[in-house]
């Protein structure tokens, strides 16, 4: 396996860590949740109104309590997905509000139908190992938009899920939906199906909702993914090192909250840094500096022995074009080489705001190539093929060799038809199709042919009953999907 590509030396990480402890002890963080404030104060933190200063020894103790690996499970528990170690898991980015319509080419507000198609497509893709609640549907009332996204994913895929709540009640309701989908709270605690994103506000604030989400995840044994989203030069320092320091303080303060609530609560060291472009007053995720910061942040998390996450593999482009491909490729490959465990971003355009089905199938190929890269080159007697080379000799060929038949597929990543490897003449005869056309055709083929594994009837009924009760509580009518 290819390993060892690093942006930070060990000494640099240790300097960031020691500076983080000083920052948390001297400046602290603002916590806008009364329950979290009380918990922190009871455990030796200095609380002055909403400002919390955290002793360094407490931070390091809580880091020791947090688990180094997390297992996510498919709906039936038959498939396990390891989050931690050297494992890399790609999933579509989450919570886009726009959708690039592959039938019209227009960017518009996303709908429930768009999310359903994206989930079914991701279910079919080989290298997208987890789902996400990828679109906030505009045809669903705001009060239930977060949980309705989860409902669509649960009904259309059995892959593990990256999600998040928009409110305190939203997380509680979504946990009940997950309980129904897997067969009860006890099963969900033993075999988590989903990770919940919990995002501090940069600089150095834990809002009421996100802090409560952290507490509620810890109570239920649901893995929490702590994701700062600093804008480099705007809501964090203009230097990448300064942004890493600030983000580290935000994440470690969240780790403290989770571990004080429940020692051993699963937590993931995440990040979604952007580069603030002062020319256009925009925040750029496809910028190389944002990619570097996300990957370096994951290196810090790995140093602590925590599972890691990064928003990578997405693009600032507005369409599927050369820019979207090279920005996504850089993020996907860098994430693999630096060992980011959960990579959120394939399929996304316009920073984190738009989903594209064509881009998702292209990114799936990039993810496959990244996995092949991680396998590296195996050098030993059989693969060196010395005897085969001697037998074939000068001027021969290897096509008929048993060694070739044995290793042909094992050594190669074989892409789908999205990647064109035809001769020029064959390409012309096939219609001279560009990558966007080929991607669109693959989207249509997979949506037409792939059938997600159905949810068992009793669990589907339990999920429907939970959702009905939630809509009734709000006095809302369920949308048709």
Can you give a write-up of this model?
The protein has about 475 residues and is α/β, with parallel strands linked by helices. The chain has two domains: about 65-375, Trimethylamine methyltransferase-like (TIM Barrel, Alpha-Beta Barrel), CATH 3.20.20; about 380-410, no CATH class. Helices cover about 50% and strands about 15% of the residues. It has 18 helices and 21 strands. It has helices spanning about 10-25, 35-40, 55-65, 110-125, 145-155, 170-180, 185-190, 210-220, 240-260, 290-305, 320-340, 355-375, 380-385, 385-390, 400-410, 425-430, 435-450, 455-475; strands at about 30, 45-50, 50-55, 70-75, 80-85, 90, 100, 105-110, 130, 160-165, 195-200, 205, 225, 230, 265-270, 275, 280-285, 310, 340-345, 350, 355. It has a five-stranded parallel β-sheet with strand order 9-10-11-13-15. A hairpin with a 4-residue loop joins strand 16 (about 275) and strand 17 (about 280-285). Helix 1 (about 10-25) crosses helix 9, helix 3 (about 55-65) crosses helix 9 and helix 8 (about 210-220) packs across helix 9. The chain is globular. The two termini are about 45 Å apart.
């Amino acid at each position: 396996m290819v390993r060892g590509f690093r942006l930070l030396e060990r000494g640099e990480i240790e300097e960031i860590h020691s500076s983080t402890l000083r920052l948390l002890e001297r400046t602290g963080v603002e916590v806008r949740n009364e329950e979290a404030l009380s918990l922190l104060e009871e455990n030796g933190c200095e609380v002055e109104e909403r400002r919390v200063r955290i002793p360094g020894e407490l931070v390091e103790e809580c880091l020791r309590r947090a688990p180094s690996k997390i297992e996510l499970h498919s709906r039936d528990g038959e498939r396990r997905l390891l989050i931690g170690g050297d494992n890399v898991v790609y999933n579509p980015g989450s919570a886009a509000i726009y959708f690039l319509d592959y039938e019209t080419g227009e960017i518009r507000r996303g709908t429930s139908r768009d999310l359903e198609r994206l989930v079914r497509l991701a279910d079919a893709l080989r290298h997208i190992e987890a789902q996400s609640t990828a679109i906030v549907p505009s045809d669903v009332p705001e009060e239930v938009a977060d949980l309705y996204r989860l409902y669509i994913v649960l009904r259309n895929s059995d892959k593990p899920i990256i999600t998040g709540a928009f409110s305190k009640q939203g997380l509680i309701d979504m946990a009940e939906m997950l309980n129904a989908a897997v067969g009860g709270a006890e099963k969900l605690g033993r075999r988590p199906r989903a990770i919940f994103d919990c995002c501090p506000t940069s600089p150095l604030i834990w809002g009421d909702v996100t802090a409560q989400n952290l507490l509620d995840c810890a109570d239920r044994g649901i893995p929490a993914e702590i994701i700062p989203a600093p804008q480099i030069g705007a809501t964090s320092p203009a230097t990448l090192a300064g942004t890493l320091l600030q983000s580290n303080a935000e994440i470690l303060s969240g780790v403290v909250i989770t571990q004080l609530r429940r020692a051993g609560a699963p937590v993931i060291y995440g990040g979604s840094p952007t580069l603030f472009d002062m020319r256009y007053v925009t925040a750029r995720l496809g910028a190389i500096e944002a990619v570097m910061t996300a990957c370096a942040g994951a290196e810090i998390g790995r140093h602590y022995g925590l599972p890691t996450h990064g928003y990578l593999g997405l693009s600032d482009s507005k369409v599927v074009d050369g820019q979207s491909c090279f920005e996504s490729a850089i993020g996907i490959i860098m994430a693999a080489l630096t060992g980011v465990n959960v990579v959120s971003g394939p399929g996304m355009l316009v920073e984190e705001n738009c989903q594209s089905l064509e881009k998702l199938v292209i990114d799936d190929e990039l993810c496959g190539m990244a996995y092949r890269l991680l396998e590296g080159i195996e050098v030993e007697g059989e693969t060196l093929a010395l005897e085969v080379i001697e037998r074939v000799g000068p001027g021969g060929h290897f096509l008929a060799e048993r060694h070739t038949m044995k290793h042909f597929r094992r050594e190669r990543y074989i892409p789908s038809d999205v990647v064109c490897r035809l001769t020029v003449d064959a390409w012309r005869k096939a219609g001279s199709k560009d990558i966007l056309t080929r991607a669109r055709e693959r989207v249509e083929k997979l949506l037409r042919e792939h059938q997600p594994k159905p949810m068992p009837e009793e669990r589907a009924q339990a999920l429907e009953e939970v959702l009905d009760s939630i809509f009734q509580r709000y006095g809302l009518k369920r949308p048709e999907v």
